[in-house]
Design a protein that fits this description.
about 350 residues, alpha+beta, Metallo-beta-lactamase, Chain A, eight-stranded mixed sheet, six-stranded mixed sheet
Length: about 350
């Protein structure tokens, strides 16, 4: 990414809102499902004291055990791992058919697999992987998944073609941090069948929508700050849009849309509205995942985001990962009955 990012006319054009009023030109015929269960495998937080309710099942220290000779019986209770990353297991049921997908895989090679094992979930049974974008804190667990499944099995993986982009964070006065970049060749060698799409994709017999590139229509969600840069082949340049950012959407019959984001680089409000426009379904039953409202560059976006979601009236908002504590507090205050804390191991089940 650039040495010292400077604003240009091109940069301004890239982040300027684009009008997208009315119905989608090419509406998506998203088939409703009877039930969806979203289990957070990796999040920035693990809180063993969170209580379950009718919407979310939590896990405590008793979720699993590990050998520990310091204790009288030789083992101790363990919880789940938390790290700066995100991963979720999505299970959809329609009639008698149940399908499971992995949405992102966390930061480290082993955290997602360790947590899945402790939860008693067999990730080798998933039918496919969806990558929200190419940032390494959402793709690190692919290594652990591949190491576990060396059996010659091919696993479909939906990814935006810009997910292979080389990126870095160039903070003035500090050595630039070059992010680990995904390798198409390595993933294919490990058995992933890559499905690269810029446009929306329908999976699972048209029951799961992957948004593809999201329309940027709000005036306040302007993307990443100048320190976020991408390699263009001839130099580092400001990369505000992270165009590979995409979300997963399910329409629960009679309830509305469940929208799952990785980081929400396209803007959480943009993403929710994009899902509404594509599907023609107006009500958002649940919004889960990272909303990227953390840090000084994004704090001015918190108030209009909260205002937009208050007007949208979702039934449930479970912000996680990169949402940030200021945004969490603002959302909890504005939506006291609809906000819930994110945590590794938490499982949301849509009302049936």
């Amino acid at each position: 990414m650039c040495e010292a990012a400077t604003a240009s006319g091109l940069d301004a054009a890239l982040v300027a809102p684009r009008p997208a009023l009315g119905k989608a030109i090419d509406p998506i015929e998203l088939q409703p499902v009877d039930e969806v269960v979203v289990t957070t495998l990796v999040d920035n937080v693990y809180d063993a004291l969170l209580a379950s309710d009718e919407r979310i099942t939590r896990v405590s220290f008793g979720v699993s055990h590990a050998e520990a000779p310091q204790f009288q019986d030789g083992h101790t209770a363990v919880g789940l791992r938390a790290e700066h990353g995100f991963s979720a297991l999505v299970v959809v049921r329609r009639d008698a058919t149940t399908t499971s997908l992995l949405f992102d895989t966390g930061l480290s090679p082993d955290a997602m697999m360790v947590n899945a094992d402790r939860l008693g979930l067999d990730l080798l049974e998933v039918h496919g992987v969806v990558l929200s974008h190419g940032h390494f804190d959402h793709a690190g667990g692919l290594a652990g998944l591949a190491a576990r499944s060396r059996s010659g099995r091919s696993l479909p993986m939906v990814v935006h073609p810009m997910a292979w982009t080389r990126r870095r964070l160039a903070v003035p006065g500090a050595e630039p941090f070059t992010m680990p970049t995904l390798s198409r060749r390595a993933l294919e060698a490990e058995g992933f069948v890559l499905l690269e799409r810029r446009q929306p994709s329908l999976l699972v017999d048209d029951c799961v929508l992957i948004t593809g590139e999201v329309d940027r229509t709000t005036e306040f969600e302007r993307g990443m700050p100048a320190i976020h840069e991408a390699w263009s082949g001839g130099g580092w340049h400001h990369d505000p849009d992270v165009v590979d950012d995409q979300a997963l959407v399910v329409d629960v019959r009679g309830r509305g849309l469940v929208v799952l984001t990785g980081c929400g680089h396209a803007g959480a409000v943009n993403i929710a509205r994009h899902a509404q426009r594509l599907t023609g379904v107006s009500h958002v039953a649940a919004l889960l995942g990272g909303l990227h409202l953390s840090g000084p560059a994004f704090e001015p976006v918190i108030a209009p985001t909260v205002e937009a979601f208050t007007a949208m009236e979702p039934d449930l908002v479970v912000p996680g990962h990169c949402t940030g504590w200021r945004a969490q507090h603002a959302l909890a205050a504005a939506l006291p009955n609809d906000w819930a804390a994110g945590s590794s191991g938490s499982s949301y089940r849509s009302p049936t």
